[in-house]
Target: Helix-turn-helix domain-containing protein
Amino acid sequence: MRESFFVQIGRGEHLVDVQIATVGDIGLVRLGIDVESAGVNVLNPDYIGFVIPLSWAGDLFLNGERVNKSAIYMPGDLDCLHLHSKSRVILGVTMPRAPFVDTLAALRGVDVDDIRLLDREMYLGEAAVGAVASRLTAITQSVCNAPLEYNQHSILNEVYALLTDAYLHSPTRPVSRVDRSHCPNHIVRLAEERFMAAEGKPVSLADLCAAADVGKTSLYKAFNSVCGLPPLAYFQKRRLTRARSCLLHADNDRGGIKQTALSYGFTELGRFSAQYRQLFGELPSVTLSRHEQGY
Model:
């Protein structure tokens, strides 16, 4: 995973329940988030990812597309996953692209060049998806709880078998596609890269539009679809979320809050504190004290 971060959108204290397991080159994660948020995960281009939604409040969107419990989602040739919902529990799997393609080609009796992994909704039905999710959850828990006792070769084979079987037995239902340069997920990603390149300095709508090579209307549509917020509001909450993460792990030194605020582009401490409290329900000083209390 090249990048993985979380942007809190809804007000309140967020609680994250996560289990992460690594078996060889395969990554497994079960993630639960109880507040409205946008999650961003950027894959290594040599890897492929799968998302299995388990439960959520309201609607859950993956790269701007509404998901359901009857399918497993594979972004295919996309390297970035954006998730947005009021709350959610999901399973995620990452694995090397080449072995997965080799396995598919062997099972289909075709050349590897004939396999193209496009954005795909693998519709299996809720019961079948539930069975795959149950087994992957059990594998994740067993690796996390007894890391020295599992059989790596056996687990690798089972995970590959579960996901290749799902791929081969699901109806071909590619996610609706548009020209990649106009894909909402791609537009958002280009804007995020411009935001990160600024390193805390101000970024305007014009800057974001230029980076994504779109007009303001297209930029707004993309962000509202993928992230649930207009672009500048999204980046404001992203900076606040990053500041909170920094405070949670910082020592309670004199001037620490001011330094954190400045690091993330907040030049007015009073305004920063007010916006912070409005989003997280507590002042930055309360968050900072959690580190000393062992939270």
Summary: The longest strand covers residues 47-57. The two ends are 26 Å apart (CA to CA). The chain has a mean pLDDT of 90.
